[in-house]
Amino acid sequence: MRNVFRYANIYQKSMVIAISLMVIELIVELVQPVIMSKIVDEGIVAEDMSVIYGYGAILLGMTLFAFAAGIASSFFAAQVSQGVGHDMRQDMFRNIQMFSVMKIQQFATSTLLTRLTNDVTQVQGLLFAFMRIMLRAPLFIIFGIVISFTINIPLAFILLSTVPVLFIIMIFFMLKGMRLFRFVQEKMDRLNHIIRENLLAIKLVKVFHRIGFEKKRFIQVNTDVMNVNKKALWVMEIVMPIVHLVMNGAIIGLLWFGAIQLETGAHQAGELVAILNYATRILASFGVFSFLIMNLSRGRASAGRIDEVISAHPDDDATFKSIQGRLQGAVTFSEVDVQYPHANSFALEKVSFDVRPGQKVGILGETGAGKTSLLHLVPYLYSPTNGTIQIDGTSIEDWGNDIRRHVTLVPQEGFLFSGTIRENIAWGNEHLSEEQMIQVAKEAQLHDFIESLSDQYDTFVGQRGVNLSGGQKQRLSIARALAGHPSILLLDDSTSALDADTEKNVLQAIRQRACTTFIVSQKVSSIMDADMILLIENGKLVGKGNHTELLQSNPLYQAIWRSQQKEGGK
Amino acid sequence: MVDSKKQRPSIQTSRHHPPMEKSPKVKNVTGTLRRIWGYMESNQKRFLLVLFFVFLSSILALLGPYLIGIAVDTITGEVSSIHFTTILWMLAFVFLFHSITLALQNYWMIGIAQQTVYRMRKDSFSHVLDLPVIQFERTQSGDVMSRLTNDIENVSRTLNTAVIQLSTSLLTLIGTLCVMFWLSPLLTWMTLTIVPLMYFGMKWITKRTRVYFKEQQKELGEMNGFIEESLSGHAMVKLFHQEQRMIDTFAQHNRRLQKVGYWAQVYSGFIPKVMNTLNNFSFAIIVGIGGWLAIATNASTVSIGVIVTFTTYARQFTRPLNDIANQFNTILSAIAGAERVFQIMDQEKEEVIDQRKEWLGEMKGDVRFQEVSFSYTEEEKVLNRVSFHVQSGEMVAIVGPTGAGKTTIVSLLAQFYEADQGEIFIDGVDTSTIQKQTIRKQLGMVLQDAYLFETTIRENIRYGNIDASDQQVEEAAQLANAHAFIEQLPHQYDTLLEGNGQGISQGQRQLLAIARAVLADPAILILDEATSSIDTITEMKINEALGRLMKGRTSFVIAHRLHTIQNADQILMLRNGEIIEQGTHTELVQRNGYYRHLLTTQQMMFE
């Protein structure tokens, strides 16, 4: 919650104005009963019309004044809340951009999205309400009692004594209710989960004749939901009758005591009327409290989630040391371990190999064996937990982010940004010329396809554009990677959706680039001509050598080769 | 060749409507209300009692300010027909009963609402499970999901509070008006002058807020899209060092959102101010004119007490006016939700169609399709006069391009669909005379996208046979080549799987599904072959496990890659809903037809 106020501080002036305007409104509302008592006592009882007109006019004028203040406060309060929302989103997004690939995995994509949108909206709403409604209720109660004291001290004491009682009642029930509602939410999630599972797996439920079992499971949770829901709602709904009872009791007390006082001539009728008026309005203010407490706790949770992102250490700042010139492309791994945060085993363990400039390296292994982790190490997207990686003899830590100028990676799911094909190819290379662009598109076997589109290189792709097939996305990603003239190219199974001919041509074109190439593939045929093949199993390097060497010595490689030979139908 | 992937349903949350949304559409209000009424069952009488208590508490709420007014008059000595202490006792009585009726009506209503919703949930869920599978393919399961969760939840929330609130607001409004007219028609008319002001004021504001809220929604949607893109492409952003560019683009979205958000909030901030000012206006009118009347007529038409009472009533009168519109919308949207739930319950159950004999004894697994046709819609036949015969223990491969009807054949066999024409015989018995459930008991299934339940690995395997012992579960896992990887998990067989088996690979999920089928020990096995996204090494393990599973059972394999089914006893080549070629691998290769053609194209791909 503190971070919210830190952000609000930037809009201090507007916030002060908004709150002052709100206080002006409040004062008008508070003064109303006083004026009304004057009208009663000095006007009606004294039968003086001029007093009624005079105070009536004041009353009307004040109402208009309060209206103007209320409308104006809307502008200032919105400026603060929208401004804070904007700043929070911007800071969060900036920080996320500076997270390393490893770090961003700590937050699931979906939670980052809700933090940037829903949670900020929640805080904005809270801030707006805070400046306009929330402060009002407690201020009204406090001022109302203070003014009551100026009118009639004994009567005001009766009013004052009820407030702490009401506070304790409200807070006790609210806290209890909120705890119960969290419980309700848990049970509801469970219930929705069962429904979801059954809808997704309806065929399994039927084939494995589990309908009875699933119905029983559902009824159990359904009963739980009903019972906690009842309890939570009862706790929340019992508050208002009790608050009413206490406050109405106070009103009876005021009337009774007021009557006694009046008999002794200690005050005038108007005073009693005014205090009664405050009493009923204070009662109404308490109605707002339940809303207030609920929103406050929700807003606090959101603010906490936002703070987690903003205060997370950005571990991959976009700064560059400037090591210029072209890279040779020699890569050396020695005893490299990688361990993900919160994981208890290594994703890669003691991996060592040596690649000379311009070599082609094939990587083969099961899903989850550590192939992608290995690729991510080369452009310093991950840093090794133990061991050293050297590129052209300089350690990867010394290269830092600069290495990304020379190394590029093509992911398996070719990735597109919303925009034109041209923008996607030139992404990261703003100075790419038309000829260069067409050249890389040809190398990626994509030029003919692009030419066939009505807008050619200016065709929109991505979220709101043309849908490209998996293979087209992969080729576009390859073209983008080639446009940067990398010295080291990493292909993470990025030709998997291409047909055999196209794949051969793409790989051929890459070959001619004479850059060091790492290719992860499922198909032995795509990598059998590599200078070195790395066989990875459970994070460990279990085979290293060229096709002929591995075929002679490595049983796992033999098995894969045999199975894929069969696939070929030979 | 990847078969069409099932779309995952998403839960749409439509909880927060922008204010003053147009009323939701309901087709049959009375019919739906009558059905909800039916769901109250034994609580119907109590519900009427609640309404009576709402009536009582509304009257008591009106009586309070009236009595206070009299009390004030008694003190000031204007009217003294009733003794002051009597009035105080009456007030105490009124207040006490007001709180009691409030508490009781809420207490009962919550009980009624929750029990009603409980029954609706139970019935709709159990009805959905009893629906024929084909229903799920017609309506998107995301839609069913949203009906069973959001729509029912909406009914629940409305029954809990909105019913009482709306009836209280209505009664208060009517009662207040009556009392006000009774006290002083003149002052009442004066107070009513604010109603048209309120109407036009709100209209002016909502016309504007609606535009800005819509625009805000649009901007938010665009920003969402951009954030999603930037998050999923995070590694790409890093690789091409485009961080600053992303931050700059985001800033543009952010500023646009700030701008429309600002105006939406400013205008919606006007609403309470207008309401409040009009309240204050009525206050000024009542006091000003009331005071003048009190003096001019020497308190014969309007007394001080009446003025005091009137100010309170005027407040009670504007508030419900605003609430009623909102509550009415809430209730309408809940009725619309209930109607959507009832629509599901009106669909015909599988078991209604299915008043047939049980399958008795063991199943040998001899399957014969005779001239079987099937279609979803009248125009397009999915299967057209398909006939084949599979002997007990044989392996049949079903191949063909996407949409040829491969999945339809096994869905018919699993009794998920009913054939339009033709018969399906198992062991010589026409299956349309047998209860679906009892046939399914003899079937096992391994689907392309192996679904895992959110429970332990052990219970997931046990799903195949609820009576299996822990030892049998582990034996099944061993047979399915799943034991080795399970042993490596942090809690082995007791590892909890979350979110449809996140954290274990596609191939491993497949192995668990096989273990499940092993445990079920079916006579007939249906396999939808794994997709190409599984790596070679895992695929080897899967194939080995499948080989063990299929031994001695009749098995139907939907194959996407032809090399895996070359040892099948029969291959059915489907195209456009018809079997165009049928025979063993060698026979079909020799025939030099479509199968041969497909085989060569696929070989090319793996060359």
TrEMBL record, chain A:
It comes from the Bacteria. It is a multi-pass membrane protein. Residues 16-298 form the ABC transmembrane type-1 domain. GO terms for molecular function: ABC-type oligopeptide transporter activity; ATP binding; ATP hydrolysis activity. The keyword ATP-binding applies. The chain crosses the membrane at residues 15-35, 55-78, 133-151, 157-175, 238-258, 278-296. SMART domains: AAA (SM00382). It is found in: Cell membrane. GO terms for cellular component: plasma membrane. Residues 333-563 form the ABC transporter domain. The keyword Transport applies. Keywords: ATP-binding, Cell membrane, Membrane, Nucleotide-binding, Transmembrane, Transmembrane helix, Transport. It holds the Pfam family ABC_membrane. PANTHER family: ATP-BINDING CASSETTE SUB-FAMILY B MEMBER 10, MITOCHONDRIAL (PTHR43394:SF1), ATP-DEPENDENT PERMEASE MDL1, MITOCHONDRIAL (PTHR43394). This is ABC-type transport system ATP-binding/permease protein. It comes from Gracilibacillus halophilus YIM-C55.5. The lineage of its organism: Bacteria, Bacillati, Bacillota, Bacilli, Bacillales.
From TrEMBL, chain B:
Pfam families: ABC_membrane (PF00664), ABC_tran (PF00005). PROSITE patterns: ABC_TM1F, ABC_TRANSPORTER_1, ABC_TRANSPORTER_2. It is a multi-pass membrane protein. The keyword Cell membrane applies. One of its GO terms (cellular component) is plasma membrane. The chain crosses the membrane at residues 47-68, 88-110, 162-183, 189-206, 283-310. It comes from the Bacteria. Residues 48-333 form the ABC transmembrane type-1 domain. It is found in: Cell membrane. Keywords: ATP-binding, Cell membrane, Membrane, Nucleotide-binding, Transmembrane, Transmembrane helix, Transport. GO terms for molecular function: ABC-type oligopeptide transporter activity; ATP binding; ATP hydrolysis activity. Residues 367-601 form the ABC transporter domain. Residues 1-25 are annotated as: Disordered. This is ABC-type transport system ATP-binding/permease protein.
